[in-house]
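From the shared-data thread, chain only:
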Amino acid sequence: TSTTPTTASHSELNHTTNTMATTRGLLLAAAVVALAAWAACGVPLHHNNQHHQAAALHDHPLLGQLGGSLNQVQLHGARQLREALAWPENSEDLPMHAKLRHWMRALDQRLHKYRTPDNGIHGGFFEWLPAFTAAAIPHQAAVSWSTRCYSSNTARVVAYTSLGAEIEITVAGPTGSSACQQNEDFYAVITMEGIHFLHVTKPETHRILWSGKEWTDADKTWIARHGFRFFLFPGTVSQTITQLADTVSLFVPALMEQTVSPDAEKRNVEFLSQSINYTMEKREVTDVFLDESLLNDGDFLGIMRLDGLDTMLAWAMGAHTGHTAITLRIDGELYVCESTVNDSYWPTNGVQRTPYAQWFKQAKAAGHVVVHLPLSPESRQLFNSTAAVEFFKTVEGLPYGYHNMLFAWVDTVNDNYPAPLVAELHELLAGLFDRVDRTMATSFWGMAFNKRLNTENLTVIEAINAGDEKGLPFPQLMALPEQDAWSYTDGKSLVCDVLVCEMWKAAGLLGDLADQVQCTEFTNWDAYSLNVFDASYVRPAACVAADPDSPFCQLLGNYRMTLPGYNSRPIRPHMAENCPRGLPPNFDKPDGC
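Structure, as tokens:
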């Protein structure tokens, strides 16, 4: 069994336990950290209301009632939120992508009534994410904090044994602030294997009784060191549900269908405007097909699909694209080469090439926004097409680069996360992932952790504990640079912009600095901001007519793409290895990045 926490108050001691059949759900927050909407994991949901008298931890009746699996996460409290997150029945045998689509459609149906109408003003995209507040650690003093509603909040672990823990939370000092609505603070208390929602509406003392009946040794080690982390949601329960519903509307149905509807595009454009001040203007001319003779080997294609996933990627990593590709002639035919996944709108998985004309048709049907950045004459002269083709053929067919995707994004302890996302939450989501789907957690975190620690086959939580013991806690472990030479169980791990950079590198575009640049540390911004493009490019008349003020050609899209920082950075040793996200909308980086 995993932990099953409950809440009690002195005035009316109560707790919530889980007795529904064990099913699987998906933590949307994990998709945020994984920067992939298909990052599915499971949450067993159980609920009934009972009343108990206060009892010592070791003989509390709750401890003998709990069941479950070590590969599952307990989720308690906040009935509306738990019911919304419940995984549909009869989905266990579906492939992961099918599970995600099934769950997200069901989630959208459950939350649709809470969603801001399409003709209204959305204001909750990802704003439901909770902020790290404090950690109550066994055998340490109480921690204190203030909130919008209560000036004095304390938490301490009053009992901690092999059977579990008792956490006491005292709430006092109503602020009377206008920022406080309904005297309501709403928390998630999280460890590596459990989540408890704590709903505070008045000054009182709460107790969370957290079962450790089947804590693993790794769980005990982590909790003894890091404790029980408190995260405060920015709004009330009802506001959180509305914000979650609005966030889901970015993805559903756009991510599940072959094309993106006008309403979905509008919501995603609104999200980019609100979150990173990225304004995408409506275009009247939506298609500009360039003749193949106008595209060179090594040219860059910047891509954005307004489907929730690409816009989330842009928001999280700090970029104005969500995907990238490169053009290359192979055996006399012009191809678009890219690393992506097959989905409802794309037929091919992994590192792939598609004839240019065919790719254009597929991209148009999929609803892609696409810009073309031609290499400068100097870069074209350096670009060895033969070497690029030879490199591409060595990686063609490899799966998408999940193993280092997050590590290319996170270069610093906390300066790569969009607020309020922080390393403390990312660490917990990695652990929760490991409980729900170890294969996926190993792919996203575990393999790369083992590389950095020079270990083998450690689980995610075991690797995090090993990092702590070596003086490399999770934030520092995430920030260690990826190495292009590293190979994983299925080969080199290449996400979209890494493939582009690696092909430039193989072709000689990085010159004498090639061995001092790790392409696996690049994000989309790092790729399109390199000073390798043609600043004097004379655009074809069709491009000028479609987008008079743009410095480059936009080939597809109902909305206009901009790329602040485009073509601005020289190639430097160890660039992109220790760089913050930067502030939107330009995401400028310090010198050396």
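The chain is about 30% helix and 20% strand.
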